[in-house]
Structure formats: C-alpha cells, structure tokens
C-alpha cells in the first residue's frame, strides 16, 4: 500500500552531514513506492513561535506556514531526522514542529537521530519521543540511529556502511505497519 510520508529534516548548520542521511531515508521510502515529501526546516523561514497555524483565519497564515500546513495535513506518517544539539533538539526543528498541531493527530512518526560521534544521537531521540507523542504523532518503538553520520553515506544518500541497508528494512517495515493501522482507523473516525 502506497502512503504519503513526509520526511522532516531539522538542521540549519553549515556543511550539514545529516542531509546525506535524509537522502538515504527518502531513497529507501521511494524504493517501497511511497509518495515522499521532504521538508528541510532551513528552507521554511518561520518566526519564533508566537502564533500557531491554527490561530490564523483560514488562508491568512504566512505563505511558508500555509505550505507546511498543507503538506502535513496530507501526510499519513512522518519521519523525523534530527541532529543532537547539546543532548537535545535543534531549535529550528522544534520551532517548525511547534507551529502545528492537528495536522499530526493520529498519524505515526519514526525517529532518525544522528551525530558525528559514536552514540548516533540517541539522547535527542528521547526528547523527540515525548514531544512527538504530545503533538499527536506517536513514534514507533524502533529508532534508526546513525553514528558518525559524516562517514555513513555518500552525497547521493547511498550507504557506505553495509549495516544501514540491512537495518532500514525492519525500521521501515514497522513504520509501514503503524501507518496502515492508523490510516485504517482514521477512516472510521478519531476520538477528536
């Protein structure tokens, strides 16, 4: 079953290495015949949160926010790629996610944390688990942590370390299972 899956990448640093991981995830989702939309937080200049999308009159939100709303609203699931900044979430990613709410409800998410070091960003994943659940897009139980991201993929998103091609299979199988389950239940209505 084909799904609309949105990959959200949250880093604004120069010489970003995580973009290669984002390409890897996008490539693997497309190989499974999903419709993939990529949101690079650095390409959507949102102000620091002072007014959520839902607080604007319909059609009156700033253009980048309206575009994001439409993408998120039409998504069946989300893959969140996050660097680990001081053991937590990059400000640009948190700010983007916080601008929306109902767009995420009853849709699963999957977390891809990464770092330049050996721990693969797992500390940021714990912060994201709580945040994504609160936003209404519960994360699947599996993570896809990427250690030494600068050495893991080439510029086109091809894995340079064989285990990533192996481990992505189970991760995406689980995301697809939850996406089907949530999508089927949404057709029957949601609690709110």
Order of helices and strands: EHEHEHEHEHH
Show unreliable segments. Answer: none
CATH architecture: 3-Layer(aba) Sandwich
Over the alpha carbons, how many angstroms does the gyration radius reach?
16 Å
The largest β sheet comes out as: 5 strands, parallel
The counted number of beta strands is 5
Tally of separate helices: 6
Indicate the proportion of strand residues. 15-25%
Could you tell me the mean pLDDT?
Answer: 96
Broad structural category: alpha/beta
Assign the CATH superfamily: Flavodoxin domain
**How many separate domains make up the residues?**
1
Oligomer: single chain
Features of the shown structure:
Rossmann fold; 5-stranded parallel sheet; 5 strands; globular
Overview of this protein structure:
The protein has 192 residues and is α/β, with parallel strands linked by helices. It has a single domain, classed as Flavodoxin domain (Rossmann fold), CATH 3.40.50.360. 40% of the residues lie in helices and 16% in strands. The protein has a five-stranded parallel sheet, with helices on both faces. The longest helix has 26 residues, at 162-187.
